[in-house]
């Protein structure tokens, strides 16, 4: 097997990871500032395929971040990054409950190109 074939096979075996992070707050404007900055910085992290920030239309003060990572390794590296730590530290005193963070495996998660 050629080196290119081996590299392609290794790439094919890497499964993307999706992360959801839900935040609830009584200070939506302050939280939006923090999470918006985080999303912009997160998008430039190695292995980040996409990050979206959405606000609930039915529950004021509830925000959801949806991240898509190249691999579990990229996601884990990001969770230890200064970008993640800064965001988490900035949320101190703003959350009405701990954030709900979940990891999701790829079932039908594909990029549209």
Describe what you observe in this structure.
The structure is a single chain. The chain is an alpha+beta fold and 113 residues long. It has one domain (16-105): Alpha-Beta Plaits. Helices cover 38% and strands 27% of the residues. The chain is built from 4 helices and 4 strands; from the N terminus they run H-E-H-E-E-H-H-E. It has a 4-stranded antiparallel β-sheet with strand order 2-3-1-4. Helix 2 runs antiparallel to helix 4. The longest helix has 15 residues, at 28-42. The radius of gyration is 16 Å and the shape is globular. It starts with a helix and ends in an 8-residue tail after the last strand.
Helices and strands in order:
Elements: H1 3-13, E1 17-24, H2 28-42, E2 48-55, E3 62-69, H3 72-79, H4 82-90, E4 100-105
Antiparallel strand pairs: 1-3, 1-4, 2-3
């Amino acid at each position: 097997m050629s080196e290119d074939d081996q590299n392609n096979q290794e790439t094919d075996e890497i499964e993307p990871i999706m992360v959801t992070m839900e935040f609830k707050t009584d200070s939506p404007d302050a939280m939006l500032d923090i999470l918006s900055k985080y999303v912009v910085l997160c998008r430039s992290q190695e292995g980040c395929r996409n990050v979206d920030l959405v606000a609930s239309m039915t529950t004021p003060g509830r925000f959801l971040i949806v991240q898509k990572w190249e691999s579990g390794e990229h996601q884990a590296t990001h969770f230890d990054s200064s970008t993640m730590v800064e965001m988490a530290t900035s949320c101190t005193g703003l959350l009405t409950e701990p954030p709900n963070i979940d990891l999701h495996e790829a079932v039908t998660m594909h990029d549209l190109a």
